[in-house]
Amino acid sequence: MPKPIYALGLGCERGCDPQEVLSLAERVLKEAQVAASDLVGVFSIDQRQDEPAIVQTAEQLGLPVTCFNAQILEKETPRLLNPSERVFALIGCHGVAEAAALVAVGSDGVLLIGKTKSAHATAALAVKE
Q1: Residue 79 has what DSSP assignment?
Q2: Sheet bearing 5-12, strands edge to edge
Q3: Which of 13, 37, 108, 112, CA to CA, is 20 to 30 A from 126?
Q4: Helices (DSSP H) in the chain: which residue ranges?
Q5: Rounded CA gap, 107 and 66, in Å?
Q6: Residue 119, helix vs strand vs coil
Q7: Would residue 106 be called left, alpha or beta, if left means φ above 0 and alpha means ψ between -120 and 50 degrees?
Q8: Which residues pair with 6 in a beta bridge?
Q9: Which is it for strands 5-12 and 121-128: parallel, antiparallel or unpaired?
C-alpha cells in the first residue's frame, strides 16, 4: 500500500510573526497526528513566497516551500471547506491554505484539516491516500 501524501497549506498577513505561523502549523499537525517528516512540503500563494513567517516555518519543519498563483488556487474553490469572499476581494482566490494544500496533493486528495486560524495566519492539511 502506498504511503499517504500530506501537504500543509499556509497563509498569513504581511509581517506576521513567524512564531505565530509555526505554532499554528504545529497545532494542525498535532490535531491530525501527522509528523512534519510525513509532509511533502509547505504550500502557499506566490504573493507570500518571500514572507519570512512562511519561509521560516518551512525551514523549522525541514520542508521546501512551493507557491502557486491565485488563478491556480482559485480552481480549487469548489473543493474548499471555507471559501472566503473577503480573501477573493483581496488576492483573487477564495482561499489560500486550503487551496494550496489541495493543489499540492492533486485532484484525488482531500482536506484532512480545514482552514484553521490564528490571529494573523491560516493553515490547512490535505492528504492523498
Answers
A1: G
A2: 65-68, 39-45, 5-12, 121-128, 110-117
A3: 13
A4: 18-32, 52-61, 70-74, 85-91, 97-105
A5: 17
A6: coil
A7: left
A8: 39, 127
A9: antiparallel
Entry field: residues in the chain: 129
> Does pTM top 0.85 for this prediction?
yes
The C-alpha atoms of residue 119 and residue 62 are separated, in whole angstroms, by 24
Would you say domain 5-128 falls under CATH 3.30.420.180?
Answer: yes
Domains of the chain, by residue range, sit at 5-128
Q: Per-residue pLDDT for the chain (129 aa), expressed as one digit of tens each?
A: 778 999 999 999 999 999 999 999 999 999 999 999 999 999 999 999 999 999 999 999 999 999 999 999 999 999 999 999 999 999 999 999 999 999 999 999 999 999 999 999 999 999 999
Distance CA(20)–CA(30), nearest Å, equals 15
β-pair type (65-68, 39-45): parallel
Instruction: Give CA–CA dist 6/50, Å, rounded.
Output: 23
C-alpha to C-alpha distance for 5 and 78, rounded to whole angstroms: 21
